[in-house]
Amino acid sequence: MKKFLLSFLFPTLLFASEKDSLSIDYKHKFAQMLDDCDACGCSATGGSMGFASLLNTNFVGLRYIYQRYSSTDGLYANSPWYTEQFNSVQVWGRIPIFKNTQVSVLLPYHSNSRETQTGSNTISGVGDLTAIGLYRVYQTMSDSTFLAHTIQLGAGVKAPTGKYDATNNGSINPGFQLGTGSWDYLFLAEHIARRKKFGLQTMLNYVVKTENDKHYRFGNQFSYSGTLFWLHERNDFSVSPQLGVAGEVSESNRQYGQRVSETSGSVVFGKLGLETGLGKWSAGAQFLLPISQNLTGGRVDAKYRFGLNLNYSL
Amino acid sequence: MAAASLFVSCNNDDSAPAATGTGKLNLEFDNVYAGNNLILETQPNTTSGNEVLKVSLLKYIVSNIKLTKSDGTVFTYPKSQSYFIVDETDVASQILKLENIPSGDYVSVSFGIGVDQQQWELGADGQGDFLALAQTEDMLWSWGAGYKFLAFEGTFTSPGVGSPTVFMVHTGKTGTDYNYTSVTLPLTNAALVRTNITPQIHVFADASKIIDGQNNILLSENNSGGTGAMIMGGANLALITANLSEMFTIDHVHND
Question: Tell me, what's the ipTM?
Answer without folding.
Answer: 0.82
